[in-house]
Write a structure and sequence with these properties.
Strand content: over 45%
CATH topology: Lipocalin
Strand order of the largest sheet: 1-2-3-4-5-6-7-8
CATH superfamily: Quinohemoprotein amine dehydrogenase alpha subunit, domain 2
Structural class: mainly beta
Helix content: under 10%
Number of strands: 9
Number of domains: 1
Mean pLDDT: 94
Number of helices: 3
Shape: globular
Radius of gyration: 16 Å
Order of helices and strands: EEHEEEEHEEHE
CATH class: Mainly Beta
CATH architecture: Beta Barrel
Oligomer: single chain
Length: 152
């Protein structure tokens, strides 16, 4: 048995030179994530320890509107005090990769470290940096987040 949660991260991104115009453009991803099997998810010796799939959509102003995305969410609390979102999405036949991290997660700074995610969008095939972003888990969405919890 596993579980699923719906998370919304909203903020801004800025294109790198040659990929678009403008700074601080809207960005948002809406994802469902959660482990398929809580026993392996909670087992520190298993390869899927605190690793779960994610699926949803991403909007990157100037690039895409609600493009489907798939990937993983890693709770790296014990390795390097991070949460890492990794997903891919396609726009006009080109595949992009997003890696975003909530960093410096410590018990005394959870309201900040669990709400701010620093990310990078790259072209999957070339690795070229397309955009950098900062997105936030808005505290006003916390009830929606908690009520989205579903056992699977």
């Amino acid at each position: 048995m596993g579980f699923q949660l719906k998370e919304i991260m909203t903020g801004t991104h800025s294109f790198e030179k040659g990929f678009g115009s403008g700074h601080n453009l809207f960005m948002e991803f809406v994802i469902n994530w959660g482990p398929k099997n809580m026993l392996t998810w909670l087992n520190p010796t298993h390869k899927d320890f605190l690793l779960q799939p994610l699926k949803g959509h991403v909007t990157v102003a100037g690039l895409c509107q609600q493009a489907p995305c798939t990937g993983t969410l890693e709770l790296r609390y014990f390795n390097d005090y991070k949460i890492r979102y990794t997903f891919t999405f396609k726009v006009k036949g080109k595949t992009y990769s997003y890696v975003g991290e909530k960093v410096n997660i410590k018990p005394w700074n959870l309201p900040i470290s669990h709400t701010t995610c620093f990310g990078r969008i790259t072209e999957k095939n070339t690795g070229k940096l397309v955009s950098t972003s900062v997105v936030y888990f808005r505290l006003r969405t916390m009830l929606q987040f908690f009520f989205s919890f579903r056992l699977k």
